[in-house]
User: Which sequence fits this backbone?
């Protein structure tokens, strides 16, 4: 049976290689900090399942300490020159797109098939893990295709992965840490408190006001929590259901659907949604940490206004 | 009330531009302490949740392939391909990707995209290449703005496309939350009511992308 644990091993190999290559790279001034950061993450991938919770918590503190104290972000140079890449681009032409497009193609294919495969009555993949395992299988297959096509040195894939990991730096780990924060918020009952506060402070009555409180509240809470999924139950139980559905007899379907989309407007405007807004800043080597958010804010605000008006005009009986 | 102090840490930390890893960890610890968990229990909760969330990092498994292809000139090739098509301006390249991303997400194909596998190696170089062709001596600020737009298009496309698909996580979450409150909503109806916003998102953001084109072209004609 293939499980996500198998994918964590692969990730461990990736970050482990990044640590070792960094450590041996005497030209990199932050090699030790980089090696420590990727090395600690490697422990989490390879041994996290078996380590006590407290040890995993200490692991986080150590990683954060490395980043805070040493900065630890210096991208190593390109492995081929610009001229070499142009030459290679000319030689392979559009075939270069093949392995890149093979990733989504194989992901979809695997997604549709591996859930149904059984070996001696035991399913090959746990139904809950099909999507993740599909992505894992697709990347491995795409890598094989790329290796056969390009015939680079055998160590090249890990060397390249290290180059990209170093250029993304600490941002690579931020989405996972935020997911953990979400779980801590939930365990401490942050949602319940916000929900109670919202229900107490937002007055019922005027429809446009109540609708705005819900849509804008969804966007704001999403910005704080980094995730519309976390904000939706809180705002819907606190404002959506008592005020809009029970109080003003609005359509539950329309209110819930547009409420969630109002939350997505918030996702576009917050650094807390790191995988969407901070990781690409690192991937695209932009100097301004909030560059992607800046570009998204006008669209998000206009769309939030549209959502508010849509809910106001469509959801209530006239 | 006290458990909300974690949210305060988040707001202050990001406003002061402290390192996000530090901010998020501090927010987690403050929330746990305020919730009365004690330091050891808080660290353990955070550690447990972090380990359980490792699946979030699986996207990075694409890096060896992407890096290998970049090494072999994928970004240069993407750039060249677009430069050869005169009609493909930066704004139009991004608009086409927005349409593609939204349409495929609406069909449930959310994995056809993403920043590491699509935006960095393909979409950003394409848009940048088109702008370079049309605006001689493209300045760095504009170049960075175009890259940021490439990332934004991926986000906006998937956010306002995926809810049209009935089996996506957010639709199932809505159904679950409403059911707990004793209200039945049908996924198919939820998906239909995601369409007006999807259209608005395409029109609003599409118009902004075409305006980006006009701004680039004005610069190409000459400094005014």
Assistant:
């Amino acid at each position: 049976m293939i499980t996500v644990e198998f994918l964590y091993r692969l990730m461990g190999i990736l970050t482990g290689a990044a640590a070792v290559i960094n450590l041996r790279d005497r030209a990199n001034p932050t090699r030790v900090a980089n090696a420590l950061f990727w090395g600690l993450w490697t422990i989490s991938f390879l041994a996290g399942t078996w380590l006590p919770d407290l040890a995993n918590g200490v692991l986080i503190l150590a990683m954060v300490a490395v980043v805070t104290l040493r900065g630890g972000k210096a991208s190593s140079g390109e492995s081929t020159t610009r001229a070499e890449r142009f030459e290679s681009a000319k030689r392979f032409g559009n075939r270069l797109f093949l392995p890149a497009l093979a990733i989504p193609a194989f992901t979809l294919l695997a997604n549709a098939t591996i859930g149904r495969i059984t070996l001696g009555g035991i399913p090959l993949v746990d139904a809950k893990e099909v999507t993740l395992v599909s992505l894992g299988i697709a990347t491995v297959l795409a890598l094989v295709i790329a290796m056969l096509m390009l015939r680079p040195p055998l160590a090249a894939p890990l060397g390249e992965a290290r180059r990209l990991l170093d250029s993304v730096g600490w941002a690579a780990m931020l989405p996972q840490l935020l997911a953990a924060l979400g779980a801590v918020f939930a365990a401490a009952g942050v949602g319940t408190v916000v929900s109670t506060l919202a229900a107490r402070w937002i007055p019922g009555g005027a429809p446009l006001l109540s609708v705005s409180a819900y849509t804008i509240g969804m966007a704001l809470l999403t910005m704080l929590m980094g995730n519309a999924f976390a904000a939706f139950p809180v705002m819907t139980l606190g404002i959506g259901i008592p005020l809009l559905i029970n109080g003003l007899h609005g359509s539950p379907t329309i209110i819930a659907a547009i409420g969630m989309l109002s939350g997505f407007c918030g996702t576009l405007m917050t650094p807390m949604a790191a995988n969407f807004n901070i990781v690409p800043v690192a991937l695209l080597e932009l100097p301004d940490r909030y560059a992607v958010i800046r570009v998204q804010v006008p669209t998000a605000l206009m769309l939030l206004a549209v959502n508010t008006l849509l809910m106001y005009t469509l959801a209530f009986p006239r | 009330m006290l458990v909300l102090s974690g949210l305060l840490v988040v707001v202050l930390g990001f406003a002061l531009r402290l390192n996000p890893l530090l901010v998020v960890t501090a927010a987690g610890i403050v929330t746990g302490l305020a919730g009365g968990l004690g330091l050891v229990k808080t660290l353990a909760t955070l550690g447990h949740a972090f380990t359980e969330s490792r699946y979030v990092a699986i996207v990075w498994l694409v890096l060896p392939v992407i890096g290998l292809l970049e090494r072999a000139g994928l970004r240069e090739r993407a750039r060249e391909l677009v430069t050869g098509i005169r009609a493909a301006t930066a704004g139009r390249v991004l608009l086409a990707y927005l349409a593609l991303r939204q349409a495929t997400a609406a069909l449930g194909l959310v994995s056809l995209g993403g920043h590491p596998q699509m935006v960095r190696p393909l979409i950003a170089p394409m848009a940048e290449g088109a702008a370079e062709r049309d605006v001689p001596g493209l300045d760095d600020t504009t170049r960075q703005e175009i890259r940021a737009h490439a990332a934004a298009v991926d986000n906006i496309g998937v956010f306002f496309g995926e809810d049209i698909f009935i089996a996506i996580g957010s639709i199932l979450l809505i159904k679950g939350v409403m059911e707990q409150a004793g209200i039945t909503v049908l996924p198919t109806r939820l998906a239909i009511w995601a369409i007006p916003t999807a259209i608005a998102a395409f029109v609003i953001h599409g118009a902004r992308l075409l305006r980006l084109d006009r701004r680039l072209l004005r610069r190409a004609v000459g400094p005014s």
